[in-house]
Design brief:
The protein is of the alpha+beta class. The protein has 2 helices and 10 strands. Strands 3-10-8-5 form a 4-stranded antiparallel sheet, with no helix packed on it. Strands 7-6-4-9 form a 4-stranded antiparallel sheet, with no helix packed on it. The longest helix has 13 residues, at about 5-15.
């Protein structure tokens, strides 16, 4: 199972308020504990994917949108090759799909991309700081 598939499972768990999942077969064992309270009767088997539009509407309220950490790791705001140049600054315009940073997790550099078009209003995490899953990295207006 690759990191992208694990990230997809974590997204589904968060969307459906599932905080614990354990999967095991002959070749893989996966245990995810997001440390949220599980409502009674919720289990990984009841996870149902929601439409991305519903999630986008919830994240983009009052003309503000957030770019959140989808994995836990170390956040980098600058390009690896040009460490003096941040990928985005407050006031910069960003487009949907644009890379705005990187999160290093388990020695793998993962792109952080904007889900929206907008202008960077605030950058909440500094270059090189740790970031938690779901933590707001950038606010757009």
């Amino acid at each position: 199972m690759n990191i992208k598939k694990i990230e997809e499972v974590i997204k589904l768990m968060k969307r459906n308020d599932v905080s614990y999942m354990n999967y095991k077969d002959k070749s893989i064992e996966l245990e995810l504990d997001l440390k949220n309270k599980i409502s009674e009767g919720t289990s990984p088997e009841t996870v149902v994917s929601e439409e991305d539009n519903n999630i986008s509407e919830n994240k983009q309220q009052h003309n503000h949108a957030t770019i959140d950490a989808e994995i836990l790791g170390t956040f980098y705001l600058q390009d690896e090759e040009q460490l003096s140049n941040p990928l985005v600054k407050v006031g910069d315009e960003v487009k949907k799909g644009q890379t705005v940073g990187y999160i290093e997790s388990m020695k793998v550099l993962n792109e952080v991309m904007s889900e929206y078009d907008g202008v960077v209003e605030d950058i909440h995490i500094s270059h090189g700081d740790p970031v938690e899953y779901g933590q707001i990295i950038i606010t757009l207006k």
